[in-house]
Amino acid sequence: MTLKKLEVPTTSITEVKKSPMDVFQQARDAETGVYVFNREKIAGVMLTQEQYETLLQELADKRQQTNPSSEEVVRPKVAVAIEEPEETPIEGLEELYHEMRHAIAAGSLMSAKILDERMVALGFITKKSGFGGVSTMIEELKETGKIIYHLRRKADNKSIVAEIIGEPDNQSQLFDKLIVKRMHLREE
Fold first, then answer.
1. How far does CA 122 lie from the centroid of its chain?
2. Can you tell which superkingdom this protein's organism belongs to (predicted)?
3. Whole-number Cα distances in Å, 35 to 26, 27, 30, 96, 157
């Protein structure tokens, strides 16, 4: 599919360097990707997370339609897991649950370090224990299929636990990349 330059928003590499969030807002406002130019040639396209995930879902749906007898759904080269239906958040923690889902999208590929930073920003206790903490997180994920976080504050004297369910990304060159499949909160 070839689009004419004027049919979609465009920007330059310089503008992306100045303010990438402005370009994401431009994509969100236009409800389409933004073509990024470098010296009058298209260098790439910037999409919001929602637009990207929608495209991946549509691709998976089309592949399933063209090969409905196949038991295995062919995935795009970017490893993304389709999220299971949303669980009901714990009463009183709905806002935290939605912030968590916004900060860490199911189906996303991210480094363990970034995952930990986002969970700490939401009020959870860090999983990194000094140098090498990231490798401990990846080992936990390999062994159990999840990374468990504890919330710093307690709700009604009950400990709140977040389970980040996923798997290490074997396609990445970096050892600390993981694929987040789903997440949920539970009381202990």
1. 16
2. Bacteria
3. 11, 9, 12, 34, 51
Look up residue 1 and give its two tokens.
């599919």
CA angle 163, 164, 166 (to 5 degrees): 135
Residue 181 above 60 pLDDT? yes
Task: Answer yes or no: do 22 and 100 share one domain.
Answer: no
CA-CA-CA-CA dihedral for 165, 166, 167, 173, to nearest 10: -130
* Cα distance between residue 32 and residue 51, in whole Å: 7
Q: Which amino acid is at 20?
A: P
Residue 152 reports pLDDT greater than 80: yes
**pTM reported for the whole predicted model:** 0.52
> Between 69 and 118, whose confidence is greater?
118
Domain that holds residue 23: 7-47
Quick check: 77 pLDDT over 60?
Answer: no
Whichever domain contains 42, its CATH number is 3.40.1620
Average pLDDT over residues 87-103: 75
